[in-house]
Design goal:
Layout (H helix, E strand, L loop, with lengths): L6 H22 L4 H15 L5 E2 H8 L3 H13 L3 E5 L7 E5 L1 H21 L5 H25 L2 H9 L4
Antiparallel strand pairs: 1-3, 2-3
Helix pairs in contact: 1-5, 3-4
């Protein structure tokens, strides 16, 4: 039966399964996928050397409204994942920074990713996994090229922000 599934459906099932497994593990940390996305974007902005990361930066990157991001950040701050304070550059903005708890979560996420991958790739040899990664890298490059050719500038930025694309 699984061989009769269209290719797109196969990728979709794998993606949804991976996401569901990650969401289950995140619930144990009292986090949602959206909150994790904001933390990942904050991590990316901090790693890029930004002097300050403000709420507006996160809103643009996450494609959410100001009120939505306000609620996300309130929850993340209550849970101890971010620290929000007034910007030293512009008093109208909140300066957002990661906490130690958030930095520890990064390590745990890496382990979660590995565990989920291990579950989904059970039965594959080391060589098969290496071949899979090579193939996926080519396919991701092709996806970027397709996105670049068929999307407007805003979509290309979204396409590029994903690791490997």
């Amino acid at each position: 039966m699984k061989h009769d599934l269209p290719y797109g459906m196969r990728f979709s099932i794998l993606g949804r399964t991976f996401k569901r497994q990650l969401d289950e593990r995140l619930l144990e940390k009292d986090l949602t996928g959206v909150q994790l996305g904001v933390l990942k974007e904050l991590e990316r902005l901090e790693a890029s050397g930004a002097a300050e990361v403000n709420q507006r930066d996160l809103e643009k990157a996450s494609h959410v409204t100001h009120p939505t991001m306000t609620e996300i950040l309130k929850r993340l701050e209550r849970k101890g994942f971010v620290c929000c304070c007034q910007s030293s550059h512009d008093r109208r903005h909140k300066c957002i920074s990661s906490t130690e708890k958030s930095r520890q979560l990064r390590q745990e996420l890496s382990c979660m990713d590995e565990a989920i991958l291990e579950e989904l790739s059970r039965g594959l040899s080391r060589q098969q996994l290496e071949t899979l990664w090579e193939i996926l890298d080519v396919m991701l490059d092709n996806a970027f090229q397709t996105c670049k050719k068929g999307c407007d500038e805003n979509d290309q930025k979204t396409c590029r922000k994903h690791p490997g694309i």
